Every structure is written in C-alpha cells, then in structure tokens.
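Researcher: Here's the sequence for the chain we discussed earlier.
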Amino acid sequence: MFRIIAFWFYCFVSVNVFAQDITINKNELLKSVSYQFQDSSMNTPRPTTFEWLTSAPQNLLSFVKRIDPRENAGWLTGIVVSSALLIKYDQDITNESQRYGRKLGLISDSKNGRETKTVIPWELKGYDLPFVVPANLNSSLYFIGDGIPQIGIVGGLIGYGLMYNSNHALSVASQNVEALLLTGIVVQVLKRTTGREAPFLATISGGKWQWFPNQEAYNQQVPKYDAFPSGHLATVMASTTVLAHNFPTHTYIKPVGYGLMTLLGFAMLNNGVHWAGDYPLGIAIGYAAAQVAISRNEKKKITTTSAAPISAKKRFQESMVLPFIEQGGFGLTYYESF
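Model: Thanks. This is the structure I predict for it:
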C-alpha cells in the first residue's frame, strides 16, 4: 500500500510542478495493483486432512535425492568438516559449557546438568499419563525443541485456518507437520545407526560410537545410543524454515528461531543430552526437510493455479478507491466486485 501511495504522490507532483501531460489507463492500474489485495488463500489449495502423512513417501524420496553430492557438494562438505572438527573437541566443549552453566546457576554441581524435567504423576482410567514440565531455566530452554512449541504453532495455524477459512494457514500447518515427520524419520534412522552415547553417561571421552546397535538394547536404554544427530535442533530448524518461507514479511521469524536454537544448543550441552558435534547434521536435516515440504507444496500450488485460474471476483474481495491521472487532470475512481 505504501508503494501505491508513494507512486501516486510522485505522479501528482510531476503534473503540478512540470505541467506535463501524463496518461495512465485506469484498467491497467487496477490490474497492476490487484495482487496487493489478494488473499493468499485464493492461490493456495486447501490441504487434505492426511496430506502430511500420504506425502511422506514422496518427501522421503525427495530428501534422499537432495543428498546427491554432484548438486550439493559444498553443503555436504561443510556439514562433514564442521561435524568432524566439533566431534574432535566435543569433550572439551561440553566441559567448558557446563562450567559456564554452573557459573550462571543454570545447573548444579551434583547432578551434571541432568535436572531436565519434573514429572507430575497423573492417571486416567488405569493409564499413566504423567505431565512433564521443566524443572528450571536450563530445562525450560531444553524444551524449546521437545515438540511442544511446534505442536502449539501447528495448532494455532489450524485454528486460525478453520476460523477464518484460510487455506494459507492450513497449508503452513500441513507443511510444518510434513517437515517434522520427515525430520523425525531421518533422525531416527541415523540415531539407530550410529549409536553414540549421550554425554551424561559417556564411558569414554567424547562418547562411544556403537554402529548398528541392537535395536532391543537401543529401546531399553535410549540415551546410550541416540546422541547423534540432534533431533531437537532439527525440529526447531524445520519449523523456523517453513514459517519464514510462508510469512516473508515477518522478518523477525528467522532471528527469533535461530536465537532459540542457540539457547537450546547451550542447554543441551549443559544437561548432557548432546555433544556439539551432533548439531551441524541435525540443523541440516531440519532445513532440508523443510525445503522438501515447501517445494512439494509450491509445485502443488502452481499446478492448481494453472488448472483453475483465479477469477476476477476472487481477486477482489472488497471495494477500493484509487486515484487516477488523465490528460488535463486527476481524480479518484471507485471499484467494487459483485
């Protein structure tokens, strides 16, 4: 809107100061600004209820294709090199982080940062359904990537989409779930393959790697095998990327998301859940999963728009008053769709 006002102000000054004859076609003007008044839902197909699930096989295949070193050699090299460097110094980084965490009062001296949560017992019809809440500031930061904030974001988008019939909001919610599901699949496969010990129970410096661990043993003592890569950071990165792409005018999304990821990474070092070397690949997985979900939905949007072009009535959902300039004068024009 600001650009439209500025444009007409410029035209008005030009007519009065330079006394030039300026002719602008009103229909062309309406056509040029029509996009400014479109509801993004008009261009966005409504996702089906289980589209986030039925698209999983296609998304997984797309994710695997993105690993092609011929197309992404730079990114893959960066991930490998940064991971290798951090893994080499993981124990020192963890020790220093926990030392600083104790200095700040985030963790205690006795429990090595394991005060991650408080479990409140609750039972419903014979089923144990305990509430898990953060025990302190450090554990509150840890819960940033625990899935609860992401569920809240998705729930809010769905609620808004249903209340205001916004296909855009529903699509963003669906993309979030697609990205999180894909992230979870990839992260779990890698965790169950690499078998790296978490810092808080590491038997050797930097944690022992137990490649292709016994899956029954994995399920019985998960922290002994599931440090690499970080699913928490992958989760936050996936949601941040999806939201930032779909709401580009909200420029605060990336700074807030990346800031929270930094705090989360610090908290996980403090409570001994992850090594710093677990982070680069986790972040990369979240980003790639989000890009897969975004790309699939963008292709769907283009296909749907091409098959069913938006009518003029849908493009304008409200009346408008616009200025116009013709030879010898200027004025206002009123437009309303009906």
